[in-house]
Automatic annotation (TrEMBL), chain A:
InterPro entries: Glyas_Bleomycin-R_OHBP_Dase, Glyas_Fos-R_dOase_dom, VOC_core. This is VOC family protein. Residues 10-155 form the VOC domain. PROSITE patterns: VOC. Gene3D superfamilies: 2,3-Dihydroxybiphenyl 1,2-Dioxygenase, domain 1 (3.10.180.10).
UniProtKB/TrEMBL annotation, chain B:
The keyword Transmembrane helix does not apply. It catalyses: maleate = fumarate. Keywords: Isomerase. Its EC number is 5.2.1.1. It comes from the Bacteria. This is Maleate isomerase. Reaction is initiated by nucleophilic attack of cysteine at the double bond, yielding a covalent succinylcysteine-like intermediate. Belongs to the maleate isomerase family. The active site is at 77 (nucleophile), 195 (proton donor). Catalyzes cis-trans isomerization of the C2-C3 double bond in maleate to yield fumarate. The modification S-(2-succinyl)cysteine is found at residue 77. It comes from Catenulispora pinistramenti. Homodimer. Substrate binds at residues 15, 77-79, 134, 164, 196-197.
From TrEMBL, chain C:
It comes from Catenulispora pinistramenti. It comes from the Bacteria. This is Uncharacterized protein.
């Protein structure tokens, strides 16, 4: 049997630097109870010399991992200003929405689990900063000891097939308007309406056919 | 002319044979020259606790060898690997490779257990016989490990020496006596020493001449796998047919 | 003609319902989308839809020859371009 085109299996690890390994271990291992699952002790042996370092990993479920680098004796590089995180800092005129746009969101199954992680955080030095009901997800947020924004989120309901179509059309419209001059939401919605008119009816008929086929093959 | 190829050896602290036999074999290489750099893990007995402790030492050893900028690392403790259960050499090799790669080193990584399997596979050996210095339970583990790798161990001898320093002084005639005692009927290859500490290099070629089947040791398979990983010609005289693999094609 | 599309997902279903309370507004479907159209401006009261803010501000899927002239916590207003 030939393999599917889309073969990847989620996050192996997402890695970040830390200057506070003690706080990082407290936050992820002791507060959130994420198991320590791997570590590497190494030094700079390649063309780029760098300090001795520890690379350590926490399990974030599903066998996926968040990892940190701690470099012995390495001071935070001089950044731009007072906001930001262990990786990069910014001057105060950089808006917070932009700084927070880069973050890690970890999935939980249900409200009970979301509230359990909220409880663990609230009892720690890193309490939940906000709890937000988005369109179809609910999330709690805090910053870890390194200043990284961490989100824990649950789905309010499963994603429906029409949302995948909608996302595909949005992205196609985005690519179209972002390839042209002065992209804007207004242009995107006009372009997306054209794509809806072109595609949506055919898509629904396709779904019905596929759904019908599924009905028939169900045991 | 480029400098010698730097070979890092991770050895148990009581091992003296790897550091003797690997240089003796590789000195005979027709083209390349090698230097050897050992780092030692303290280990007295093979127990779960000591193996865990050795794991931490392994990381320290790799750091030391990484600092030396080695081109290859041979993790040379066969029982430590086989005691970890089937496939352990793959886990250890990949942990060592990851540690080296994390620091930017592209050193080749091999282990005595992995190299033994690779050497036997290169000989297309299916049915094998072996001599080990270990006590019977440990030897049985080695046999099980090799069988889990797909080999059929048709006969084997354990010389039952438990002190690792004494293993390093086992006389050659004792090893040959054990080998002659084996039933070699239908055997594809003989492992004259499955242990990197039991001296055997001088026995490989005579045993091969006497028994008329390919004979290997932990040292010759280690050298074979090292040369293959480094992309070098396998053509070393006097240490069994495995190490002459490329000799015919060379001229 | 003012025309907007809204995706048919559970959070959005009240939006075409509220819009259709205006007799000038016609609601039909194109595939999984509601098409909301009117010869005059389309005005939808947010509170009447019961939509949470996050849902409300991401509800518009497309606009045909139309533009948004109001989209705040009170109402969504779509008019001819």
């Amino acid at each position: 049997m030939s393999k599917p085109e889309h073969r990847v299996k989620g996050v192996d690890h997402a890695a970040f630097p830390t200057f506070d390994p003690v706080g990082t271990v407290r936050f992820y291992r002791d507060v959130l109870k994420f198991p320590v699952v791997h570590s590497i002790c190494a030094a700079g042996w390649g063309p780029e010399r760098h300090p001795d370092f520890i690379h350590f990993f926490f399990d974030i479920g599903n066998g996926d991992r968040i990892a940190f680098f701690y470099y012995f004796g390495f001071q935070p590089p001089g950044g731009a200003g007072g906001t930001g995180d262990a990786y990069a800092t910014f001057t105060d005129d950089v808006p917070q929405f932009f700084i927070n746009s880069r973050h890690l969101a970890i999935h939980v199954d249900d409200e009970q689990d979301l509230l359990e992680y909220r409880r663990r955080l609230d009892e720690s030095h890193w309490p939940v900063e906000m709890q937000v009901m988005h369109e179809t997800i609910e999330s709690v947020y805090t910053h870890d000891p390194n200043g990284y924004l961490v989100e824990i989120t649950r789905s309010l309901r499963p994603v429906t097939p029409q949302e995948d179509l909608d996302a595909a059309l949005t992205v196609e419209a985005l690519v179209d308007v972002a390839s042209g001059p002065e992209p804007s939401m207004d242009k995107l919605l006009a372009r997306k309406a054209e794509l809806i008119v072109q595609r949506a009816t055919g898509w629904e008929q396709e779904q019905e056919r596929a759904g019908g086929a599924k009905e028939m093959t169900r045991p | 002319m480029p400098g010698p190829i730097k070979v890092g050896l991770v050895v148990p602290s009581s091992n003296v044979t790897v550091e003797t036999e690997m240089p003796r074999i590789l000195r005979r290489h027709p083209e390349a020259s090698f230097s050897f750099h050992a780092s030692r893990m303290r280990m007295h007995t093979v127990s779960p606790e000591q193996l865990r402790a050795m794991n931490a030492q392994r990381e320290r050893c790799i750091l030391e060898l990484g600092d030396a900028g080695v081109d290859a690392v041979l993790y040379a403790c066969l029982v430590a690997l086989t005691a970890g259960g089937p496939g352990e050499h793959r886990r250890v090799e990949s942990a060592v490779a990851e540690q080296l790669a994390a620091g930017g080193s592209d050193a080749a990584v091999l282990s005595s257990a992995g190299a033994l399997c690779e050497g036997l596979r290169a000989l297309k050996a299916q049915r094998i016989a072996l001599v080990t210095p270990y006590m019977r339970p440990l030897a049985q583990q080695v046999v099980d490990y090799l069988e889990a790798e797909g080999f059929e161990v048709t006969d084997w001898r354990a010389l039952e020496v438990d002190d690792n320093l004494r293993v390093g002084r086992i006389p050659a005639d004792l090893v040959m006596k054990a080998a002659r005692d084996l039933d070699l009927e239908g055997v594809d290859a003989l492992v004259i020493s499955a242990c990197v500490q039991m001296p055997s290099l001088d026995l490989v070629q005579p045993a091969e001449d006497e028994f008329e089947i390919p004979v290997v040791s932990a040292a010759t398979t280690g050298a074979y796998t090292l040369l293959r990983k480094l992309g070098l010609r396998v053509d070393i005289p006097g240490a069994g047919s495995l190490l002459r693999a490329d000799a015919r094609s060379s001229t | 003609m003012s025309t907007l599309f809204v995706l048919d997902v559970p959070e959005n279903v009240t939006i075409p319902q509220v819009a259709a309370q205006d007799p000038a507004v016609a609601v039909d479907r194109i595939g999984p989308y509601f098409r909301i159209a009117s010869p005059t401006a389309i005005v939808i009261d947010r509170r009447a839809t019961g939509c949470r803010h996050a849902v409300w501000y991401s509800a518009i899927a497309g606009l045909i020859d139309s533009r948004v002239t109001q989209h705040d916590k009170d109402a969504l207003r779509v008019e001819d371009r």
